[in-house]
Amino acid sequence: MNNKEKSKIILRTLNKIYPKVPIPLNYKNTFTLLISVLLSAQCTDVNVNNVTKNIYPKYNQPKHFVKLGRRKIERLINKIGIFRVKAKSIYFLSKILVEKYKGKVPKTYEELEGLPGVGHKTASVVMSQAFGYPAFPVDTHIHRLAQRWGLTNGKNVAQTEKDLKRLFPKKFWNKLHLQIIYYGREYCKARDCHGMACKICSTCYPGRKKPIKTKKA
After folding, report:
1. Contact by Cβ (8 Å): 21, 34
2. Disulfide check for 112: which of 33, 53, 123, 184 has CB 3.0–4.6 Å away?
3. 93-144 pLDDT per residue, tens
4. Which one-letter DSSP state was computed for residue 104?
5. Residue 139 annotated among the catalytic residues of the structure
């Protein structure tokens, strides 16, 4: 079975299981989406949502976080991993948004990735979910699944993103990256499926006898 055949099976399976997929992070506007994605690095979406539910009703604009200052931001997010680093990024990116972009989140990769703490994956989520731009954000979970399913050679997330974009039609990217995340959490878990048990793994690799080892991004 070649990759094109596998990609069709994957699309068909995911569309059947997840015809609609909500964004797992809660947010109020484009700015808070950006903040939530930034906070989600090395942290679960559930934890981020638990923390931000007490923040966003009151603080949801760049000017709010500039006024708060780094120390108060730290106190608000101190239940999240590497909160001091993230608080610094949030403060300075908010300052830049106020001073350079009139409080608005920019709509290009170059401008987004120029903000403190915003990497390509974070920018891709914002471009995809806030602005509807075709993007395929790849995190460590998607990277792992793409290796299990034989869709990439697994060198790094940048290579995985290129491989997935080449395999799947652009019109599916924005929905598909979320479908893969949900499927990985529910059916193709890191310490459960091992590349052998779930519907996608067993269909694409019916003869696989040994657990597949994946390379970290």
Report:
1. no
2. 123
3. 999 999 999 999 999 999 999 999 999 999 999 999 999 999 999 988 899 9
4. P
5. yes
Q: What predicted TM-score, i.e. pTM, was given to this entire model?
A: 0.90
Token couple for 109: 């990769």
Distance CA 16, CA 13 (A): 5
Which residue out of 6, 86, 121, 163 is catalytically annotated? 121
Give, rounded to a whole angstrom, the gap between the first and last alpha carbons of the chain: 25
pLDDT, tens only, 47-97 = 999 999 999 999 999 999 999 999 999 999 999 999 999 999 999 999 999
HEC per residue, 85-101: HHHHHHHHHHHHHHHHH
Among all chains, which residue has been given the structure tokens 């609609």?
A: 20
**For residue 22, with 0-12 CB atoms within 10 Å meaning exposed, 13-18 middle and 19 or more buried, which class applies?**
exposed
Quick check: is 45 catalytic? no
**Band (213; pLDDT cuts 50, 70, 90):** confident
Nearest to 49 by CA among 65, 33, 31: 33
DSSP string, 16-27: HH-SS---SS--
Q: Which tokens hold the place of 168?
A: 């799947």
Given the residues 139, 162, 171, 189, the one annotated as active site: 139
CA distance 46 to 40: 9
Pairwise CA distance, residues 152 & 163, whole Å: 6
Give how far Cα 161 sits from Cα of 26, 31, 40, 135, Å: 25, 25, 19, 9
Please list, in sequence order, all residues whose beta carbon lies within 8 angstroms of the beta carbon of residue 103, skipping any fewer than 6 positions away: 61, 62, 63, 97
